[in-house]
Each structure stands twice: as structure tokens, then as C-alpha cells.
Amino acid sequence: MSDKYPVFIAIDSQNLYHSCRFEFGNEAKVDYRKLQELLIANLKRFSSNLHVEAVVYTVASDKRQSNQPFLSMLQAIGFLTQTQFVAYSPRGARSVTRTEWNVGITIDAMKHVLGTEEPIKRFILVSGSGAFEPLIRELNIEGVPTDVYGFKQSISNSLPGCADQIFVLSKSILLDNQDGHTY
Questions:
Q1: Are 12 and 127 in contact (CB under 8 A)?
Q2: Buried b (16+ CB within 10 A) or exposed e, 137-158
Q3: What confidence tens digit (pLDDT) does each residue in 22-33 have?
Q4: CA 56 to CA 64: how far, in whole Å?
Q5: Percent of the chain that is helix, strand, coil (3-state, to 5)
Q6: Mutual orientation of helices 102-114 and 133-141 as an angle, nearest 10°?
Q7: 59 and 86 Cβ atoms separated by less than 8 Å
Q8: What CATH number was assigned to the domain covering residues 5-173?
Q9: Residues of the chain above pLDDT 70, percent
Q10: What values do phi and psi take at 12, rounded to 5?
């Protein structure tokens, strides 16, 4: 048995983006380096031998790679990325159902619990969405503790009752200079 402490971190970038703006204003942006430092610092309470897989789930409005600088920055600091593209109907209306990551994050989390040689010992969710309550409850059944990070006003009332810990994100993880960059 390995003494590694495997952890899966799932970051719902759309939830983070909108809840950050809702709480701190339209110019507020998350500094993903600061977020990463916070997550790792909190995880070190459990082990000094962390084995972390951290995925940022993103949404792009088109396939012209307009968000490539953002993705490149995330990858440069150690995040894996997955991107969904916004689907449009023939008349141009946005189809929201294909731009949410709830199902994708749930599938990936369960793969890390049931489908790997070394199942995770902890799941970290960076999203305040109540849509993840069934996932967290299932992880509880499987014996996997779950920590949820989100901005105070955007953490669903259903999450504190099922997550092991709730961490409220603060201004400390926002960009210091709001010059248009997302890192």
C-alpha cells in the first residue's frame, strides 16, 4: 500500500467566475495561482506526500481557441483542463444544457473512486452548486471525504449538510491588479 495521499480536485470555472463577480463585482477575477496555493496548503493537513490531480473545467464560446491564453496559464501552473464548447441552436439561441460540467465532474470523480488502482482519499470541489449534492452523498457512502470551496453567497444551502468541510473563498484569492488577465 502506498503512503501517497491521492486527491482529486475539480474546479468548475464557470461557477467560480460567476459567483466571484456576483460577490465582488463585475471586475473581480480569481487568481488561480492563489487558489491553488490555498487548496494545497489546506490539503497538507492530511499528508506531506500529496498526489494531486487538479482539473479546471472550462467553457468556451467557440472553437477558435479564444480562451487559449487562459488554458495555457492554467496548464503552466499545473492544472489539467477540460473544455466544453457552447452549443447553439439553428436560430442562434444558446443551449445552456451543454455548457454545464455537473455530469462530467461527477463521472470523473467516480472514476477516481471506483476505477483506479489507487482510489482517492479526498475529493475537493471548487463550486458552490447544489447540483453536486448527489455526488457528495455518494462519495460519503464510498468513504471519501469531500471539501467544498465556494464564495459565501453562492454556496448552496444543501452542501453544508453533506460535505465534510466547507471553505468560504475570500478576496484573498482575487487578482491584485484587474488589468484584464485571468492569472
A1: yes
A2: ebbeeeebbbbbbbbeebbbeb
A3: 999 999 999 999
A4: 19
A5: 35, 25, 35
A6: 10
A7: yes
A8: 3.40.50.1010
A9: 85
A10: -85, 95
Dihedral pair phi/psi, residue 99, rounded to 5°: -115, 20
Instruction: Give CA separation, 29 vs 20, 63, 72, 103, 173, in Å.
Output: 7, 23, 17, 25, 9
- At residue 115, the pLDDT reads 81
Closest Cα partner for 51 from 111, 6, 109? 6
Annotated domain spans of the chain: 5-173
- Give the closest residue to 7 by CA, choosing from 117, 161, 149, 144: 144
Main-chain dihedrals φ then ψ at residue 4, nearest 5 degrees: -65, 155
Question: pLDDT of 96-112, one tens digit each?
Answer: 445 578 899 999 999 99
Rounded Cα gap, residues 79 and 148, in angstroms? 18
Question: Which set of grid coordinates corresponds to residue 183?
Answer: 492569472
State the amino acid at position 12 in one-letter form: D
Q: Which three cell numbers stand for residue 43?
A: 490539503
